[in-house]
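@channel sequence for tomorrow's demo:
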Amino acid sequence: MAPANKGDKVRVHYTGTFKDNGEVFDSSQGGDPLEFVLGEGMVIAGFERAVIGLNPGDSKTVEVSPEEGYGSYNPELAFKVRKEQLPPNVEPELDMMLEVRTEDGGAAYVTITEISDEEVTLDGNHPLADKTLMFDVTLVEVC
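structure tokens (generated this afternoon):
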């Protein structure tokens, strides 16, 4: 069988760790493999790059920079709102994720990063922004 290439549907097992301390932040081990189509932007670029060229059963470890991962941290995406602006059924907690409406009516996700008596800080950056990541990837199959 030919190696995995753009346009192929693949199934992979992976473990993602932070490069700086080796802490695991995500893994498919013990569960179903991740399934996606190469070249469709369904996963971050660095992860996809690791899979291209693998044959079923092959494994690879790849370092993913923020540019090929979840991007650089943008301080303009963090902002304070008054607690009254939150939905009445939301009791804010640190690291809680909320869906908010953008100016154009779309949806965006933010994380509560600070809470004071009157305000909460909402951060629209991906939680893995600015992080260099390591992935151990094994190609299970090309579907």
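heads up for whoever presents: The chain has two domains: 9-71+129-142, 75-123.
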